[in-house]
Every structure is written in C-alpha cells, then in structure tokens.
Amino acid sequence: MERNKLPLRIGVGAIVLNKKNKVFVGKRKDNPVNKWQMPQGGVDKNETLIDAMRRELKEETSIKNIEILKELKDWTEYELPDYLLGKIWKGKYRGQKQKWFVVRFLGSDEEINVETNRPEFIEWQWLDIENLPNVIVHFKKRVYEKLIPEIKSSIN
Q1: 53: which of 12, 34, 111, 124 fits an S-S bond (Cβ 3.0–4.6 Å)?
Q2: Cα 17 to Cα 32: distance, rounded to the nearest angstrom
Q3: Which residue stretches of the chain have pLDDT < 50?
Q4: Which pLDDT belongs to residue 86?
Q5: What does the H/E/C string look like for the chain?
Q6: According to the model, what pLDDT value does residue 109 have?
Q7: Domain extents for the chain?
Q8: Does the CA dihedral 64-14-154-68 come out positive or negative?
C-alpha cells in the first residue's frame, strides 16, 4: 500500500469542557491499552463541519447540551503508523485532517452515555487539559500538544 497515494480523511473533533474546565475523554473500545481520546470523526457528504461535530459528539457520548466557544482557525493533521495503514477506514486514507471545536458542556454528567448504538468508548472521564498528550495514542500526540494552548485561550 503506497502511503503517498492515499488522501487524508476530513474530520472534526470536539474538545468538551465541563464547568471546571476539565476535558472529556473516552477510552476507545478498539484499543485495549490505557489510551483515551476526545470525541472525533469523519464529515459526511454535504454536512457542515459544525453539524458533523454535533453528530459525532451525540453518536459517541450522547452529549447534546453544548455551547460552542470556539472553532479553531487552523486544521490539524496526523498520519497513521504503518501497522494501521490499510486496516482503518477500509484502507482508503493515510491519516486525518481535522477541524476542532472547543465546546462547553452545559448538562450534567448523567446526560453522558457512551453505550450508544455503535459504541466507540468503553468508559469516560474528565481530565486536566495538561494531561491530554499523556493519554492519547502516540501518533496523535503532536495534535493534542498543539490543541492545549488553543483550549486554554478559549477559557481565559
């Protein structure tokens, strides 16, 4: 499989902050090691980025009660490691190009339910912003490091 012939998948991510400015992360169902990530996913055809973010957030966490604080100006990108190339997304993509949104969760924790129709997470937690790069899979670490100052600037 030639990496450079595969495109990047267009996706969105939701940085969900609670009232204490902690970030929602879920432990992925398909990753048995102790790795967590923020809700994210692909953009469907004819779907706006905001609509895709809201849909992904609802599909993965059941969260609907949000206020959008900020759409990050820049896109982020990551490449899949060789051992995942051809296995994820039916082999159509080499990585993802993402637009991230910082949102405030306005509901209570009881609204959050990761046991959805097609669950992606097996559990969830609120995490300190600084800890994000320590819990993510290695190939997304640079993205999460880049997001931290953006998150902090949207809450100050």
Answers
A1: 12
A2: 25
A3: none
A4: 87
A5: CCHHHCCEEEEEEEEEECCCCCEEEEEECCCCCCCEECCEEECCCCCCHHHHHHHHHHHHHCCCCEEEEEECCCCEEEECCCCCCCCHHHHCCCEEEEEEEEEEECCCHHHCCCCCCCCCEEEEEEECHHHHHHHCCHHHHHHHHHHHHHHHHHHC
A6: 97
A7: 6-155
A8: negative
Could you read off the pLDDT of 124-155 as tens digits, one per residue? 999 999 999 999 999 999 999 999 999 999 98
Largest interatomic CA distance in the chain: 46
Bridge-based pairing of strands 66-71 and 76-79 is unpaired
What pLDDT was estimated at residue 49? 98
Q: Could you report the per-residue pLDDT of 86-99, keeping only the tens digit for each?
A: 888 989 999 999 99
Who contacts 92 (Cβ-Cβ below 8 Å, separation ≥6)? 6, 7, 9
The answer to whether 132 touches 25, Cβ cutoff 8 Å, is: yes
To the question of pTM greater than 0.90 for the whole model, the response is yes
* Residue 98: closest CA among 36, 13, 37: 13
